């Protein structure tokens, strides 16, 4: 296939970007692993891939899968299946809010446009047929779903009921504990000419047959939707009955997403422009905030720290969403000051833990939001607490947590989070207790203190002091300023090791992240946040420069073009067990691979030190397009070139291979850092 004729950017023999960079064209769908597109609104979504449809869900991508989700790329089985289109010799175009499947069969040109409505809980699959032959053609398109109507197919398949209704199928699981009122449906609308439509309740399928005269075109749209009101089905059928209504729906969806995510930054780097001007925000909003699902995980839950961090990227582009997330998260706090680690919004079920950084993201994001937008009204927004269910001797408790009739302002919720954190100081070294993990969940057995968390708290206190002064809470502001200086003294006295800051302390007092260790001698986020939290102090400038140099020396692998989280990887050579991070093979994910979330913070640290050259170098290493702009690179990297990967392997058997894509907070942070430091060529 001729690259110049196709005029695709970063072409790698699988595909490339169009001229504007807002579409990725996959011309060879035999990609190394499934290359996906996520399409969703806030209640309904679907994932499709170069291998076929992954699945669709309603309300909760983990709890109520309409069709079967498969994340096995070796023996991939589609959750929804087409026959007659999207089944052989097809190309795929991934765009913001839509996917196009293009296929030519025996003189019949076929196009399948897949998109999710922005206001109705439906997936529209518009089939456009064109007969390019000199004789009439009979074309049959069939569509079926591998129904789940719950969490797992094996649990639910014997309880699914399907029946024919007027012009469609209705599918229910009346035995579902939480979704028994939900009705999935399949219907055909938007027919441009007479078609024969056959519904099969046993197979959860529909077949459409149409006869095309020579040179004739025809189209129809297959809808998969879900509702709790049966009248909605008729409403959808009526509103989308015509071809014109389907066209309007498609155009509205495209325009909605373009308005939300397309920017016009000029960053002096074509690949950075492509990511920053659409793909990073699209990944953050559609996957992280709406679907909370991807090919590699179907989570469904709202993570307390996760979605707060995601909305940092929206402060200038969709501030209402950031504000909404702040208020929502404030309502998931216990009176003591700790919060739910994650929860399912539809049921209120969530998990209470001893993780030590979750609650601090509320004051961090709140301060950033107010500082950037000037919206002080959010500080006085009142939200409730959740009922206290003690953990007793357990390390975590999963339960349903309801709101109680006790309210505080968002400002007071944020103060309570900070003060709860300040109550967890080890008086011997002045550092904050790690609990069952800080930002790195894998440090689940340390039980001592976290140097990173202490740096993070310093930055939170600095940011929140601005709000305290704004609220005339001067005594609190003075107290927080004093605390910052105390933490600074503690980390300099206890956490400096030759040329870098250590990562944590075990309960027995031994150190993690020091040269004396056999594993994890140097950790990335201690160095990054040392800079972020102490950049204003003149007396530590040399230490900050030195720790960045050390991180660059040990953690930046320019040959693989990755930034490792720590070095060397854990390999059971130490007597102190840091936690489940050891369960990962060395060089995979957090265990010594690139964990992109942290790598973005490393770039941020360079920018904070006004070292723009180094900061831009790190962003370039992170950029997925640089890992995939030739076939050789794409075959090593394997995953999608158009979205950020959560991790990239340094493992010797899979060096440079991308891991978990789409469902990662790295996309939001990457956009935030680019916008803060590089937008409009700001230097």
Mind explaining what this structure looks like?
The protein is of the alpha+beta class and 683 residues long. It contains 17 helices and 38 strands.
Quick take:
The protein is of the alpha+beta class and 683 residues long. The chain is built from 17 helices and 38 strands. The strands form 11 sheets. A 10-stranded antiparallel beta sheet has the order 1-2-8-9-10-11-19-16-15-14. A 5-stranded antiparallel beta sheet has the order 26-27-28-31-32.
List keywords for this structure.
five-stranded antiparallel sheet; 25% strand; 683 residues; ten-stranded antiparallel sheet; alpha+beta; 31% helix; Beta-galactosidase, Chain A, domain 5
Terminal CA distance reads: 41 Å
User: Would you state the CATH class of the domain at 31-256?
Assistant: Mainly Beta
CATH topology of the domain at 31-256: Beta-galactosidase, Chain A, domain 5
Overall average residue pLDDT:
96
The share of residues in extended strands comes to 25-35%
CATH architecture name of the domain at 31-256: Distorted Sandwich
Shape type: globular
Strand order of the largest sheet: 1-2-8-9-10-11-19-16-15-14
Low-confidence sequence ranges: none
Helix content: 25-40%
* Largest beta-sheet details: 10 strands, antiparallel
What is the total tally of β strands? Answer: 38
Number of helices: 17
- CA-based gyration radius: 26 Å
Secondary-structure content class: alpha+beta
So, the CATH homologous superfamily of the domain at 31-256? Glycoside hydrolase, family 65, N-terminal domain
């Amino acid at each position: 296939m001729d690259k110049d004729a196709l005029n695709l950017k970063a072409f790698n023999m699988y595909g490339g970007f169009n001229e504007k960079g807002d579409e990725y064209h996959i011309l060879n769908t035999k990609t190394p692993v499934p290359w996906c597109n996520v399409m969703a609104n806030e209640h309904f979504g679907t994932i499709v891939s170069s291998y076929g449809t992954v699945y669709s869900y309603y309300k909760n991508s983990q709890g109520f899968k309409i069709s079967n989700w498969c994340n096995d790329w070796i023996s991939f089985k589609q959750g929804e299946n087409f026959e007659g289109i999207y089944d052989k010799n097809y190309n795929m175009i991934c765009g913001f809010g839509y996917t196009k499947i293009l296929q030519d069969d025996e003189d019949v040109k076929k196009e399948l446009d897949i998109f999710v409505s922005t206001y109705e809980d439906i997936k529209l699959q518009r089939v456009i047929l064109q007969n390019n032959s000199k004789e009439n053609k009979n074309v049959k398109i069939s569509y079926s779903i591998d129904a789940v109507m719950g969490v797992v197919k094996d649990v639910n398949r014997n309880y699914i009921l399907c029946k024919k209704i007027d012009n469609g199928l209705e599918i229910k699981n009346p035995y579902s504990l939480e979704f028994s009122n939900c009705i999935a449906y399949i219907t055909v609308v938007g027919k441009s000419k007479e078609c024969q439509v056959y519904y099969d309740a046993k197979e959860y399928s529909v077949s459409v047959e149409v006869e095309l005269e020579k040179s004739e075109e025809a189209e129809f749209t297959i809808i998969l939707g879900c509702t709790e009101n049966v009248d909605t089905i008729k409403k959808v059928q009526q509103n989308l009955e015509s071809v014109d209504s389907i066209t309007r729906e498609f155009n509205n969806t495209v325009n909605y997403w373009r308005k939300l995510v397309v920017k016009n930054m000029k960053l002096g780097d074509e690949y950075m422009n492509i990511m920053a001007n659409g793909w990073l925000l699209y990944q953050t909003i559609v996957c992280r905030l709406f679907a909370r699902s991807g090919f590699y995980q179907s989570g469904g839950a709202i993570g307390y720290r996760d979605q707060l961090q995601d909305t940092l990227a929206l402060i200038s582009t969709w501030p209402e969403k950031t504000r909404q997330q702040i208020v929502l998260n404030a309502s998931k706090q216990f009176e003591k000051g700790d919060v739910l680690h994650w929860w399912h919004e539809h049921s209120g079920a969530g998990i209470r833990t001893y993780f030590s950084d979750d609650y601090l993201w509320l004051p961090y994001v709140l301060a950033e939001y107010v500082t950037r937008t000037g919206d002080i009204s959010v500080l006085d927004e009142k939200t409730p607490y959740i009922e206290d269910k003690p953990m007793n001797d357990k390390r975590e408790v999963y339960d349903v947590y309801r709101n109680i009739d006790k309210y505080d302002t968002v400002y007071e919720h944020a103060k309570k989070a900070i003060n709860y954190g300040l109550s967890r100081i080890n008086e011997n070294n002045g550092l904050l207790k790690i609990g069952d993990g800080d930002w790195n969940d894998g440090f689940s057995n340390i039980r001592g203190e976290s140097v990173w968390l202490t740096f993070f708290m310093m930055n939170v206190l600095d940011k929140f002091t601005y709000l305290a002064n704004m609220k005339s809470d001067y005594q609190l502001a003075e107290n927080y300023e004093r605390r910052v200086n105390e933490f600074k003294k503690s980390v300099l006295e206890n956490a400096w090791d030759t040329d870098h800051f250590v990562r944590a302390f075990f309960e027995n007092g031994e150190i993690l992240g020091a040269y004396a260790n056999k594993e994890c001698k140097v950790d990335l986020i201690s160095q990054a946040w040392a800079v972020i939290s102490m950049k204003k102090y003149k007396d530590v400038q040399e230490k900050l420069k030195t720790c960045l140099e050390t991180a660059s020396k040990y953690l930046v692998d320019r040959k693989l073009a990755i930034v490792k989280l720590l070095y060397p990887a854990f390999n059971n050579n130490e007597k102190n067990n840091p936690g489940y991070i050891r369960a990962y093979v060395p060089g995979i994910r957090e265990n010594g691979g690139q964990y992109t979330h942290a790598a973005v913070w490393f770039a941020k640290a360079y920018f904070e030190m006004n070292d723009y050259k180094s900061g831009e170098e790190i962003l370039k290493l992170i950029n997925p397009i640089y890992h995939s702009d030739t076939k050789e690179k794409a075959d090593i990297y394997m995953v999608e070139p158009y979205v950020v990967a959560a991790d990239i392997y340094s493992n010797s058997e899979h060096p440079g291979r991308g891991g978990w894509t789409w469902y990662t907070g790295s996309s939001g942070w990457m956009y935030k850092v680019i916008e803060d430091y590089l937008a409009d060529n700001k230097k």
